[in-house]
Write the structure tokens for this entry.
Amino acid sequence: MKRCYYECLEVQKGAGGDVLKTAYRKLAMRFHPDKNPGDHTAEVKFKEISEAYDVLKDDQKRAAYDRLGHAAFEGGMGAAAGARGGNPFGDFAGGFGDVFEDFFGQMMGGHGKRQNRGQDLRYNLDISLEESFSGRAAEIRVPAQVACEACSGSGAEAGHSPETCPTCAGHGKVRAIQGFFTIERSCASCRGSGKIIRHPCKACRGAGLTQKERTLNVDVPPGVEEGTRIRLSGEGAAGVNGGPSGDLYIFLSVAEHPIFQRDGHDLHCRAPVSFVTASLGGSIEVPTLDGGRAKVAIPDGTQPGRQFRLKGKGMPVLRSAQRGDLYVELAVETPVKLTKRQKELLREFDAESQAGTHPEAEGFLARLKEFWSGGDGA
Ligand SMILES: [Zn+2]
Ligand SMILES: [Zn+2]
């Protein structure tokens, strides 16, 4: 004789949905087969409460049960089956799967997915300043775990398919009560995969994944800097147990340039000129990063360290049509290895120097005199 469903769940006949659920969870955890291995009585009890809950949680089934008792679900002849015949409520006699769906499904929420997500990968890509300037289509090869071709990622040999793990009913996790706490742990029978593979694929030994090198095309946009990261969504390691793939991050490293130094969007370069050019003025040619050249007019009497700004000749601004500037810093070089004649000419030049030829030196000298005389007076 079957026990009354309300008795099975230890609730009153008029118990509401929440009371039913709480009662069911408490009992289901106590009598769960995982917690009572080999205990037949617990197994029977577990089926009993599962069946009771399956009926009572459903308003329609519960109404039928309240009216007709167990007869409502017996064979095809029950009154509730009506004219359609058969059991309108499906077979729940061995329904562990359904029970788990209902009970673990909501408790586990969505966080199971996250745990199965593949790892993010990092790839270091070295580029030149020119490539950072003009952008670059790079082809990179990354080691990756991809779905095994032989078994399409199932891990099972051709003609077989993975079976749902009976221990965890395919959830990959089991729950256990420790004191007041419910501990969720990975199912030991299937190592968290929810599946048991009895005939493993030979190519991947049942893993469903194989190591392979993949070639990816990366579009490095103009204007990237040292440390810029490019994210390739979903190109990271493959997920576990059907989880989503991780992302691939490309970390860019821009090499030093022999001529140009970068400062944000601007470029700097040093242009040494002779003291003659600096004195008399002239025009010099400076390189630009696009491989071209630009003219810089040097006025006469230009001092060392003076900067000339070439507007728009700097780096491109990432994802914009703007460009930084190029700063050319003038370095005036003192000549060395002079010939006798050159020395003579310079001495002649010096003899002709007068007040105002070297204003900075003259000013400095005047300040020195004042400083030293002040020191004497003290
Ligand atoms: Zn399992
Ligand atoms: Zn395989």
The two ends are 122 Å apart (CA to CA).
